[in-house]
Amino acid sequence: MNRIGGECSKDDVAIYQGPTEPLPDGVPTYTVQILNVCASDCSISDIHVSCGWFSSAWLVNPSVFRRIYYDDCLVNDGNALGPGDGISFQYANSFPYPLSVSAVSC
Hints:
7 strands; TPD1 protein homolog 1-like; TPD1; about 40% strand; 3-stranded antiparallel sheet; mainly beta; 4-stranded antiparallel sheet; single chain
């Protein structure tokens, strides 16, 4: 939900995920976009995502997205995404991980 004015919340971060070309050995790949959709000029940092046992057959830049603990992944090294900013990455796995925002700081 976008709000005008007030504090931001985890609802101001959107996650989009979709399939991309598989690796040469046939392992499926997925592209993930994480966006700050806050309508009130807010920067959002310390974005944590519920991610299960997230892993990838190819390296995901850990400063972009990394699993810290089970079901806790950190976005952008905890640094802020400004209004309208986003970050994206690709991962390879036999199935897509369900990803959802679990916590943010405003």
